[in-house]
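Q: Start with the shorter request: fold the first protein.
A: Done. Sequence, then structure:
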Amino acid sequence: MSGASIPVKHWRDAAANAAVSLFRQVITAARIVAYSAYPSAENRWLADAQLRLYRESTRYQPIMLILASILVSQASAGWISWSTRTTWWISIACICVITDLSNRYFDTPRGNALQSVQLRALNCVVATAVFTVAWSSMTVFLWAPGNEIDHMVLVLILACSLAASTALGALHPATAVATYAIYSIFLVGRLAATDSALDHTLASLSAIYIALMAGQLVVIATTSRKMITLEHERSVLVDDLHNAKIASDRDRARATTAGRAKSQFLSNMNHELRTPMNAILGFSELIQHKSFGDAVDKYAEYAGIIHSSGEKLLTLIDDMLDLAKIEGGRLSLRETSVDLRQIIADAMETNEPAASEACLSLVKRVARGLPRVQADERAMRQIIGNLLSNAVKFTPSGGCVTVFAQLEDDGRPAFGVEDTGIGIADEDQSTVFERSGKGRHDVTTMDKGTGLGLAIVKGFAEAHDGEARLESALGSGTRVTIYLPASRIERSEEAQKLAG
C-alpha cells in the first residue's frame, strides 16, 4: 500500500507544480498583453518600440490587402454574385484606408509621451481588430452553403492570413491576441455551425492549426521582446558611454585649465614674493655694510622701504593662508558688531594715494541709517579693501570708482565697488572668483597681482552665508556686490525691546 501511494503522491505533486507553473505563465502572458495594450510609465519604452516595429512591418499592408481582397472576391466568382463580391471588396478597401489614416494620425506624437504611447497602442489594437473582422467576414459574405470547394478556399485564405498575422502580430502582443480571437470565431465557429461532416473536420483541423500558430506566436513574441530589450539596453549603454565620455572630456578640460591656472598662479606668486624679498635683502645689505657711511637719513629711508616690503610680503602670505583655510573649510570667523560705513571710509582713505596717482576719483555712496551687522571685521575690511584696490588697479586714468552700501528691498545688507574700468569679457566672468581667475587683460596694467583677491572676497562672503555677484561688460566697467543675509543685521536696543 505504501509503495503504491508513493507514485500517486509523486504524480499528484508533479501535476500541482505543473498547474502552478502554467498559472504563473498565464498570468505573465496576461500582463504582457495588458501592458502592450495600455502601457505604464515603466514599460512605455517597450510598448513604443513594439508599436514602431509593428507599424514599420505593416507599412504597405493596406495596399496589399486591397489587391488581395479583389483576388479573393474573384476566386468566389463561380458561386457568389457580382454585387455581393463587389460590395465586400469595396468595404475592405474603405476600411483599409480608414484604419491606415487612423494609425498615421496617432503615430504623430502629441502631448505627454506616456499618454501618446497609450493612445497609439489602443488605436493599433482597435484598428487591427476592426480590419480583421472585416477581412474575416469573407466567411459570411463569400460563403456558399453546401459548396465544399468554396469552404476549403476560404479556410485556406484565412489560414494563410493567420500565418501572416502570427509573424506580424507577434511584435505587439495585444494586437496578436485580438487577431487570434477574431480568426477563431470566424474560422472555427463558422465551420462548426454547418451540418457538413467535411466542415466539421475542417473546423477541427483549423482549431489545431490555430493552437500550433499560437505556440509559434509565443515563441516569436518572446524572441522579439528579448531583441527589443537587448537593443534598448544597448542604446542605454551607448548613451551612458557617450555621456561618460563627455563628462570625462569636460573633466579633462577642467583639469587642463586648472593645471594652467596653477602654473600661472605659481609664476605670479614667485614674482610677487620675490619682489619684496629682493628689496628687503638688498636694502638690508646696504644698511649692514654701511654703504653710505654716516648718512643716517639714507638708512632711515631704506629701513622704510624694508618695512613696506615686509608688510607687502606679510599681506601676500596672509592672503595665501586665508585662501587655504577657505578652500579647506577651516576658516573661523570672529563675529562682532561691524560698522560698514567706517570700514568703507578707512578703505577709501587707504586707497586715496593710489587713486590720486592714477588720476581717479573716489566716490562714496552709503545709504543713510545703514545698520551695523554681525560679521568678522577683518573679513569685511579685506573684502572692501580687495574690491577697492582691484577697481583702482584696473580703471584707466580719468575714471571713477564708487564704493556703495545699502539695504535691499528684501532686507539684505549689500555693499561693494563699482568702477568705470576695462570690464570683464563674458567668457571670463565664470572664473573671476577662482584662484588666479583674474579675467582681465594683462596688458592693461603692469601690476598683475596674484589673482587671489576676488577668490578671497567670494570665500569670505560665503563664509558669512552671503554671496558675491558680478556685473560687468568689456569696456563698460565692473560692479561687484556682496550680499549678506538679513539675519546679520544688528537690531537696535529699541527694536530688540519691541521684539521681546
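Q: Next, the second protein, separately.
A: Sequence, then structure:
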Amino acid sequence: MGDRAIGSVVARGGGCRDVSVRVLDEALGVVVVHIDVDVGDVMGANVVDTVAEAVAPMVRDCLGGRMGLRILTNLPLRRMVCVRASIGEAALGGPGVVDGIARASRFAELDPFRAVTHNKGIMNGIDAVALALGQDWRAIEAAAHGYAALNGRYAPLAVWRQGDGGLEGFIEMPLPAAMFGGSTRVHAGVRAAFELLAPKSAGELAVVMASAGLATNLAALRALATEGIQEGHMRLHRRKQQSETVDETGEMTP
C-alpha cells in the first residue's frame, strides 16, 4: 500500500522498508506505528507523509480505534552519520592544549548546560553547510537536539579523547541531508555550491556536513582551552571592522 503511493521513489530504488509498533499508553490505547521509508537522495518529508496517509486506513482496520496524526518524525534514527578524526598534538599546540580540549569535551558529557553550548558550536558548522546547499536546516537542528536528549539527559553529539600523540574525535547524529528537493536545484548560489562540492549521494553530503560540525567544535574547544573564546570573538570583530573601512576603490579609509 505504501509503495504504491510513492511509485516514483520506488522506481529510483527507494520505498517502504520496515514497520514497527510502540504502545505509548496501554490504558488509553495510544499506539504509534512507525513505517521506515528509504527516500534515497531526496529530502523526503512529503514522501513519508504520503506513505502515512496511504497506509492509515489499513492501520485503522488492523488496530481499530480512531486514527490520529499521520506525519513524519524529525528524529530519523535510520539516517545516522558517524565521523571520526585524529589530530596530532603538534598541530593543536602541544600536549597542554590536547589535555585542555579533552577536559572541555568531558565537561560537556558531565553537564547538560555545557552540552547545549557544545552542540551549538557543532551546529555552527553543520548549519553553514546546510544553508549553502539549500538543506532543511530546521529539520537538521531538530534531529540533532532530539537525538542529544534521546536517553532522557541532554548529551554532547561529539566527544574528544586523548590518544597516542594527539586527539581522537567522534561525532554521531541523525542528519537528513538531501541532493534533491527544497531549494537544492532552484537557487543559483545553491547550485554553484553543489557543483563546487560535488557530493555523489545524500550519505556523502551528510558526512561532509558532520565533518564541518566536528571541525567547528574542535576550533571552539581549542579556543576555550587556550586564549579563551572571547579573545577569538574580538579578533573576528576587529577583522570585520577593518573590512568595513575599505571604500569603493579598495583603499582603506581613515
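Q: Describe the second briefly.
A: The chain has two domains: 2-63, 80-236. Residues 80-236 form a domain with the 3-hydroxy-3-methylglutaryl-coenzyme A Reductase; Chain A, domain 2 fold (CATH 3.90.770.10).
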